[in-house]
Amino acid sequence: MFKKGEKMALAKSLKMFLTIFVATTCIYMVLYQYHLSREPITQPKYIKPPLYIITPTYRRAEQLAELTRLGYTLKHVVNLLWLVIEDANQTSPLVIHTLNRIGVPYEYFLAPMPDEYKNTKKAKPRGVSNRNRGLDYIRANATSGVFYFADDDNTYDISIFEQMRYTQKVSMWPVGLVTKFGVSTPIIRNGKITGFYDGWIGGRKFPVDMAGFAVSVKFLHERPNAKMPFKAGYEEDGFLKSLAPLNLTDIELLASNCTEILTWHTQTKKNANASPLNLTLHGDTNLVSLNTFLVRT
Ligand code: UGA
Ligand code: MN
């Protein structure tokens, strides 16, 4: 078919083609390696200020459900430490199991409500010993950032966490589903607080909801006596007053100057404790295992 001369010419050009192909590939590989080595390591320019979220909790039928819902909200927020503080005398393996499963960095402490308040017929100061325990932790362990009291049953838009992170002193914003007014908020006129809108003022200087303010860690450090009083209905006001000096003009307004609702004081329907499991009937089934997750007393 081909003459000898033609064959040789073909082999020669094939060899030349292969040489050029291999050489080009090698050059490209070297250049690519060089390009990769020059690529900056993706690193955040600066680390965001830490957030400390203080969550009181207590044993009841809804507890694990509430913690799960809140925990997965917090999972969307970076550089956050969740301080989960239970009103109980013993740690709960179920709470620990739930917190581990969610995977948000957390600390878990106990802070039982003192008996004198627990046994009263009057309204109880709920979550107060828990929150004061959270303040103790912050005083001992935190140097910068911001803390926030997040009850386990409320609803939080994650953007409020990014906004509160930069609080210099105290920040405030509206909370939905509070009293028959539907919202509890500072009233803003020309960019300034002129009062508070809340269905129950009760002679409070700061008639706001627990979910409606955050405080800078540095600001707390400068006020070593600040704490929450065991006074039902006056927990927020008492705590904010204990942060004196704190003027209305010091308060930073979030949620677009208090024009948006990003937190809600949702309340879960109270569920009855589960009725006892009949072990004779179900003792060899999955119900035995499920039984360990239910609240009975
Ligand atoms: C409202 C406010 O949002 C609370 O911040 C405030 O402490 C409370 O009123 C009050 O004035 O006593 P509310 O929804 O009525 O809260 O109360 P709960 O949600 O039942 O309790 C507030 C927090 O304390 C929750 O995180 C809850 O888990 C915890 N809590 C409640 C306890 O640790 N122990 C209790 O016996 C009851
Ligand atoms: Mn609540």
Automatic annotation (TrEMBL):
Q: How does it sit in the membrane?
A: Single-pass type II membrane protein
What's its catalytic activity? 3-O-(beta-D-galactosyl-(1->3)-beta-D-galactosyl-(1->4)-beta-D-xylosyl)-L-seryl-[protein] + UDP-alpha-D-glucuronate = 3-O-(beta-D-GlcA-(1->3)-beta-D-Gal-(1->3)-beta-D-Gal-(1->4)-beta-D-Xyl)-L-seryl-[protein] + UDP + H(+)
Q: Where in the cell is it found?
A: Golgi apparatus membrane; Membrane
Q: Where are the transmembrane segments?
A: 16-34
Q: Known EC number(s)?
A: 2.4.1.135
Instruction: Report keywords, A-Z.
Output: Glycoprotein, Golgi apparatus, Manganese, Membrane, Metal-binding, Signal-anchor, Transferase, Transmembrane, Transmembrane helix
Its required cofactor(s), as named, are: Mn(2+)
Tell me which SUPFAM superfamilies the record gives.
Answer: Nucleotide-diphospho-sugar transferases
A Pfam entry, by short name: Glyco_transf_43
Q: In which pathway does it act?
A: Protein modification; protein glycosylation
Keyword presence, Transmembrane helix: yes
Give the matching CDD domains.
Answer: GlcAT-I (cd00218)
Its chief place of residence is Golgi
Q: Which family does it belong to?
A: Belongs to the glycosyltransferase 43 family.
This chain belongs to which protein, by name?
Answer: Galactosylgalactosylxylosylprotein 3-beta-glucuronosyltransferase
